[in-house]
Automatic annotation (TrEMBL):
This is MmcB family DNA repair protein. It comes from Bradyrhizobium cytisi. InterPro entries: MmcB-like. It comes from the Bacteria. Pfam families: MmcB-like (PF06319).
Length: 162
């Protein structure tokens, strides 16, 4: 089982996310909620990568959404294909200013702004193995619980994360 210290709580602001990326994430999270998912941002994956948004629904389906704020952002990202091993569906979320054609085939596309989003095209389903699903679900639950605990009692958890 993963050590809880390896599951980031609320990741410290690294200032890499642009205002555009934060707006896309917010709108995408609203869409996911309307589809019956709850999501966590910046969730570290077992592979060591960190997914922008990981969504989980009551059926245990796991979706990963990568946020792309520019063409350059997409071109610089050579790791997105590794996320497939950790989810049932993989999406890219971006603003209406980016052309859909630049995104890889076999992924879903979500067009978003700060206030909402819509599914431009569904991602193909590729069910993950039961062991991976359990690992991701536990990771998701631990991160969610730890983040809530930190909000409720910041001083009570400060030494655990330093």
């Amino acid at each position: 089982m993963d050590n809880a210290r390896n599951i980031a709580l609320v990741p410290p602001p690294d200032r890499r996310q642009s205002e555009t990326a934060l707006a896309i994430a917010r709108g995408t999270a609203r869409l996911l909620r309307s589809l019956g998912f709850t999501c966590i941002s910046e969730l570290p994956l077992p592979s060591g990568r960190r997914a922008d948004l990981v969504a989980l629904n009551e059926r245990g389906e796991i979706w990963i959404v990568e946020i792309k704020s520019s063409v350059e952002d997409l071109r610089a990202d050579q790791k997105w294909h590794e996320y497939r091993a950790h989810c049932d569906r993989l999406f890219f979320a971006f603003t209406q200013d980016l052309p859909c054609e630049i995104f890889p085939e076999g992924t879903g596309l979500i067009i978003a702004d700060a206030y909402g989003a819509h599914m431009h095209c569904e991602a193909p389903e590729h069910k993950i193995a039961a062991a991976t699903r359990k690992q991701m679900t536990v990771r998701f639950g631990m991160a969610a619980g730890l983040r809530i605990n930190r909000l409720v009692d910041p001083q009570g958890h400060a030494d655990f994360w330093e």
